[in-house]
What does this fold into?
Amino acid sequence: MNNQIHETAKVGKNTTIGIYTVIGAEVQIGENCTIGNNVTIYEGTKIGQYVRIDDNTVIGKQPMRAKRSIFQESKKVPPTEISDNCMVGAMVVIYAGAKINNNILIADLASIRENVSIGEYTIIGRGVTIENYCTVGKKCKLETNVYITAYSEVGDYCFIAPGVVTTNDNFMGRSEERFKHFKGVTVKNGGRIGGRAVILPGIEIGEDAVVGAGSVVTRNVPPKTVVVGVPAKFFRNTPEDQLLENQGWD
It folds into this structure.
């Protein structure tokens, strides 16, 4: 079959593996999984049951550091974990140290960096990038080409529309002063951000807050408020029927 499966790897019953796939040492793959063609699964990765991984995807890649990167850790990152009933699209890269909980969809061309945790039933859209040291809660939707910068936190039930950009460096790479202020974005439970919005470093989007499409958010957004514009300003309160507490969700 032209595959390379390490002798210490364990593959569960009824799991199918496409051609030209490489499975490293100590990898564990559960039962009833579908692994596509030309997939690379690095050493120690743990994959649950009923998981689908499509063609040309890379799982468990160790990070690499540029000489000028602020991230200069040299220790090896622990293996990736993918729980049951997940679907991972084609040409996705999931780095070592990522924890993907159950029933998650990660669409084609997405990139999930090291030390990222994603909660159950969340949808990661096509071309989404989640940088290192981020957490994303359960039952979120991150749509096509969303960019979540390093050291960000996204709560549960959040919606982030296509093309949203978050940032973490007010000094844009110049002067040592930036290291004192380097901070990602926080989106509290139920926060929603419209398409092509830009969120500046360290900003907090409050619970059930809404950011209008195309807005540039330069200040924290209070809970249960709607902001719009450049720079974003208060527009109104979030309608009562839109609040998480009135949705009847688990």
